[in-house]
Design brief:
Shape: globular
Order of helices and strands: EHHEEEEHH
Structural class: alpha+beta
Radius of gyration: 17 Å
Strand order of the largest sheet: 1-5-4-3-2
Helix content: 25-40%
Strand content: 15-25%
Number of strands: 5
Number of helices: 4
Largest sheet: 5 strands, mixed
């Protein structure tokens, strides 16, 4: 048995909406730039399903919500332009050693003005300027055995195993 990391991509509800918006723009301009960008985003989502994926770890920036547990992936359709889209994702480790890591796609959006990072922070419910460690310390007393969903290692809500997602396997 190989010791390879198994990963399953899942889209958050917000990321599903982002993808739908990309699709709506592509439908307005068939065979144009927007359709090529949608196709590039879908191809990248497939790539993110495996261990080898082109991501960049995000750092804490006091001007944004702390996304240091997330990665950014750059997406573009034109190799001569700076990629205009970013995919923000985070890996949620399984509770069992033989489980599958879930790569949650938090946001898919424009690089311009760092909008996608602001949206990702809002979707994760993180305030600007507070580190993950500070936020976890604030939330610690609120966890209890009656909570029905999983908690990830950093204390934030993780998608449940039964939650619908897109399976690119």
């Amino acid at each position: 048995m190989t010791n390879s990391l198994r990963i399953k991509v899942c889209l958050s509800p917000g990321a599903r909406t982002d993808l739908q918006r990309l699709n709506e723009r592509a439908l307005k301009d068939p065979h144009g730039k927007e359709e090529a960008l949608l196709e590039a985003a879908i191809v990248m989502l497939h790539r993110l399903n495996g261990r080898r994926h082109p991501t960049k770890p995000l750092d804490h920036n006091p001007h944004f919500a702390d996304l240091s547990d997330c990665d950014a992936t750059y997406v573009g359709a034109d190799p001569y332009e700076k990629p205009p889209l970013r995919i923000v994702s985070r890996d949620i480790r399984p509770s069992r050693p033989d489980g599958i890591t879930r790569r949650e796609i938090v946001a898919i959006g424009a690089r311009q003005d760092s909008k996608v990072y602001r949206v990702a922070g809002q979707r994760l419910g993180r305030p600007v300027g507070i580190t993950l460690a500070e936020l976890a310390a604030q939330r610690e007393p609120t966890t209890g055995p009656s909570r029905s969903h999983q908690r990830s290692a950093n204390g934030f809500d993780a998608p449940s195993e039964s939650e619908p997602d897109l399976d690119f396997g």
